[in-house]
Amino acid sequence: MGAATRGARSTAVTWQVTARRGSTPVTGWPVVWLLAGYPLWWALGMGQFAYWLFAVPMLAELVRRHRTVGLRVPPWFWLWALFLVWTVLGLALVTVEMPGTVPGSGGYPGAVLRVINYLVLTVVMLYVGNLTERELPVRLVAWSLAVLCLVTIAGGYLGMLAPTFEFTAPLEYLMPGALVSDPYMQTLIHPASAQIMDIFGYESARPKAPWEYTNIWGYMISLLLVWLMVAWVIQGTGLARWGALVAAGVSVAPIVYSLNRALWAGLMLSLAFGAAQALRRGRVVLVGAGAVAMVALSLTLALSPLADVVRERADNPHSDDGRAATNAASVEAADLSPVVGWGTTREGQGSSDSIAIGPSAECPGCGQHVIGNAGQLWMTLIASGWVGTALFVAFFAVVAWRYRAAVTVVGQGALLTVLLLFWYMFFYVALMSPLAVTMIAVALLWRVEEPLVAGRRATRAGGVW
């Protein structure tokens, strides 16, 4: 192995582990406060708007770097930049009436909000990727995500034990009444512990705190458990390491009561990925011990009341017909405007339950459904067309392919985070927080694994950079 390769590997190992004691972050505080402090932002009513707030100092730092040492972008950034251009171009069609939809159901507020969110997440990715290990230790990012995982688990129990818990956030007192009363805005700024839904023929509480929807809670717990395990591995020993394992076990109850089938399957995919990576490293004993633990956990669940919840959920598909109808409508929308889409979502005329325009007391499920709200893929199809969707998917596909041979613990956790997008995009909308974690993972892959990629290429080229 050449000196360049050894140097790259040494750098990656340094990034994987941590900055040594006494090396405090100089510039990376916005990321730590954004992630670890998210419960506070949720309680204040900021929710996803906290990303906007902390993007301001991040952007200021990026501008400063551009003027001084220069701003770096990943080699595949052009795909994402083109996607951003496509989202802006789509705004021109927001007011255009789409066949088969409710007139006037497409509006600029939601479309502009979506564009701003994408731009904010771009700032987050570039910020994390440009900072050095001294300024923002990778271990600190993993720790912040692990703390957010613990908060999400606690929020799950809050939704289970106090499903009607909610309160008026300070931000609600400061906003105009017309804006606060908007149902969508209420979802974003009004803290509540659970969504009360009729799935089994009676009302059931599905945990969502500290996120906007139960589905977002499910997506986030799936991603954050990955980072809880990453933090567990790099912690080494001690109470914190064992605490992470206990927390992962405790998360089972709210995961089951969330009734999120895509989440359950996603966790199985994550376990399969982890087992494959461990076998790749020759950790056969670890995989065997994990398999035994999973069998024991499965038997415990089968003998507990949680098994009844799983069986009842399997017998009540609930949203399958509605999802199939709106997803098909998203494909039709992309066919009608394949280049730039329609700029935003629309309300379809009728639904899978009825051709009625709106719901009624006799049929609350009748009436228009929002086309594009059943998953990130479907939302991107109607908002950005086939071309925009191809750019979105291609960006993350190129990232996953480039770092498919990730060898560091952080790199493998980040790779799994990106790969999970390709599963959840069929079921959950990734904006805002799930996509934020994914973009942070992209930045960490760029920081941690890129030197190794360059080193391997240098070796194949005879050691010449």
Describe the structure.
The chain has 465 residues and is mainly alpha-helical. The chain has two domains: 1-15 and 88-127 and 324-359 and 372-465, no CATH class; 137-318, no CATH class. Helices cover 65% and strands 3% of the residues. The chain has 20 helices and four strands. The strands form two sheets. Strands 1-2 form a two-stranded antiparallel ribbon. A two-stranded antiparallel sheet has the order 3-4. A hairpin with a 4-residue loop joins β1 and β2 (203-207). The model is unreliable at 1-25 and 353-358 (pLDDT under 50).
In short:
The protein is mainly α.
Helix content percent band: 55-70%
Largest sheet: 2 strands, antiparallel
If helices are DSSP runs of H or I spanning 4 or more residues, what is the number of helices?
20
| Uncertain stretches of 5 or more adjacent residues | 1-25, 353-358
What is the strand content?
under 5%
Question: Biggest sheet, strands in spatial order?
Answer: 1-2
Class by alpha and beta content: mainly alpha
Mean pLDDT, all residues: 85
What order do the SSEs take from the amino end to the carboxyl end, as H and E? HHHHHHHHHHEEHHHHHHHEEHHH
The domain tally reads 2
Cα-based radius of gyration, to the nearest Å: 23 Å
Shape: globular
Provide the descriptors you would attach to this structure in a database record:
single chain, 465 residues, mainly alpha, 2 domains, two-stranded antiparallel sheet, 4 strands, disordered N terminus
